[in-house]
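Final report, Chapter 2: Outcomes

The project's central promise was a pipeline that accepts a single protein chain and returns its three-dimensional structure in a standardized token representation, suitable for archiving and comparison. That pipeline is now operational. To close this chapter, we reproduce one record exactly as it appears in the project archive, with the input sequence first and the structure output second.
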Amino acid sequence: MKEAKIKALLEKKIILLAKLTEQMEKQVKAIDQDDDSLLTQILDQKETVIDSLLIDDQELEKDVVLLDEKTRVAIADKLKELGTEIKSEIEKIIGMENDCEKKLLNEKSELLKKMRSTRNGHTLLKGYGVSARIRPKISGSI
């Protein structure tokens, strides 16, 4: 009974990880296309999938804790393939997430450079503005 439930939870996790992988692929495209509204929408969808994964992980943990050591090892041996599939999906997602992070950090640094150059240009332009007339300190015209 417990084995079937654990297997079902692991299979559901694989499905959710596949959905997360799809979301990551969409995220990469949105970043490449510089589409902020689409990126925000994708991140919201990703968050719901991650929440589902967390809920399932908590339920799985509860079920595994209730098992004795012998049963736990037996189930782990039977479901080893599911574990390796889950691990490979997670590694693929982590790689994609790291690539997205690098792209976004590069974009952030480019924006900071542009902001600094704009600020420096603005400061330089102040020197070429119309200066106020300097009034003589001695009364009358000289």
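Archive annotation: The radius of gyration is 29 Å.
This record, like all others produced under the grant, will remain available to the consortium after the project formally closes.
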